[in-house]
Structure formats: structure tokens, C-alpha cells
């Protein structure tokens, strides 16, 4: 009788947290749909409006239509980038913290499900959804960001753009999931775990953003040489060319995944110590 219960644990987790899963899927699909609409529909209307301004005399408000396009693109990347706040809050408060606080987890452990299996199922399904969501969003965002460069600026150094164009945005979500789980197991109360998880991720994010320029060696700026607008300038006279995006993004991704692995290992170790 125990084996079916163990095999059915992922289904139980999915049923308990199906609302959160539906919200996440809707959020990712909505973001992807918005990007497609902006590039397939809005971009052409913006160009048409600008063309009309070129033929008009005097002030033409449609001349600045591109700013709205840039703003909407920016909002999509910002919302997806900072979604790790919601992941951390949910993992600490609802996924793990609430079940430990109410005793639901201990009840499951008496039904033939070991604490390690319970935690594995709790983390595996959300992690899969985060990875699949990132696999859908990142390629579409990269296409959307590069498809209409004449309507956007060249600043790839914005925090949300930098993360959303690569795997770092997925790594932030996985790291938030692991940190939220660790906070919940450590505190065993949903609201404190929620607050600690979000605060820890905010601090980590701010630290990485502040030191992002140091993740890869810079290039020296030749004297009397005017750099293009698409480079990342530094105060010491060095800079990062656009070709540094991938190594910098991958280094940040590696740091986040290392933190996630450490937090996950600590969560399993702490859970085992407290349930032996």
C-alpha cells in the first residue's frame, strides 16, 4: 500500500498547488503572447505612424510612438525578471512553510512518504515549470528584442534586458525556489519564511546587479577612440562590448545555480536532521 502513495505524491503536489501552476503558465503565455503581438502588429503600426509624421509639417505626436513600444517591451522583461520575488514568496510561504506549520507534512510522512521524497516532489514539479517557462520565454524575448532594433535603444545592459535575454532569468527562479524552501524548513512558519526568502533573494539580486560588470574581464578603451553606443562603459576607461553578453550572463547563471544547489542541499540536510 505504501508504493502507490509514493508514486502518487507528484500528483498530490500538483493538485494542491494547481492554482499556482495555472497562474504561472498563464503568466508565461501572456508574456510570450504580448511579445508576439508587439512585434507582429504594434511594430508595423508604429512605423506607419512615424512615416506619416515624416510627411507632416510641424509638431507630430506620433513621432514619439516608438517610446510606447519600448516601454511595453521593457515592462514584459521587467515582470518576468522580477517574478523570482513571487517564486521565493510562494516557495517559503505556501509550498513548504504552510505544510510544516500546519502539520500536513508530518501527516504525509506517516503515510509511507519519507521526508526526502516529500521534499523532492515538492521541489521537482515547480522547478520543471520554471525551466519550461523559461524555455518558452527566453527564445521569444531574444527574437522580439532583436527583430525591431530601429524602434528600440541599444542598451543591453539594463538589468531586466540582460537577464531576460539569457538563462539567468531561469536561474533566478530556480534559486528563489531553493532559497524559499530552505527558509521554510529553517523557520517552519509560513509568513516569516516568506519574508526571509524574498529578502534573501532581493539582497542576492542587488549584489549581482552591482557587481555584474566584474563578472568578465573588460576591454581597454583606446585613447581618442569613440566607442559605439552599444558598449557597456565603465568609469575606469574600460568597457564591455556586446560580445561579452553571453559569458557574463552564463557566469551569473552559474553563480545562481550554485546558490540554488547549496540551498537545496542545506534544505535536505536540515530536514533530515529534524526528522530523524
Number of structural units classed as domains? 1
State the secondary-structure class: mainly alpha
Q: List unreliable stretches of 5+ residues.
A: 1-6
The neighbouring-strand order within the major sheet is 1-3-2
Q: For the residues shown, what is the average pLDDT? A: 84
Distance between the termini: 23 Å
- How would you sum up the global shape? globular
Number of helices: 11
- Count of beta strands: 3
The major beta sheet can be summarized as: 3 strands, antiparallel
What is the helix/strand order?
HHHHHHHHHHEEEH
Q: Calculate Rg over CA atoms.
A: 23 Å
The percentage of residues in β strands lies in under 5%
- Helix fraction by DSSP (H/I, runs of at least 4): over 70%
What does this structure look like?
By secondary structure, the chain is mainly alpha-helical. The protein contains 11 helices and 3 strands; from the N terminus they run H-H-H-H-H-H-H-H-H-H-E-E-E-H. The protein has helices at residues 2-7, 9-16, 18-55, 65-81, 83-102, 104-109, 115-147, 159-164, 168-187, 190-210, 245-275, and strands at 219-220, 232-233, 238-240. The chain has a 3-stranded antiparallel β-sheet, with no helix packed on it. The chain starts with a helix and ends with a helix.
How are the SSEs placed, and which strands pair?
Elements: H1 2-7, H2 9-16, H3 18-55, H4 65-81, H5 83-102, H6 104-109, H7 115-147, H8 159-164, H9 168-187, H10 190-210, E1 219-220, E2 232-233, E3 238-240, H11 245-275
Antiparallel strand pairs: 1-3, 2-3
Helix pairs in contact: 2-7, 3-4, 3-7, 5-9, 5-10, 7-9, 9-10, 9-11
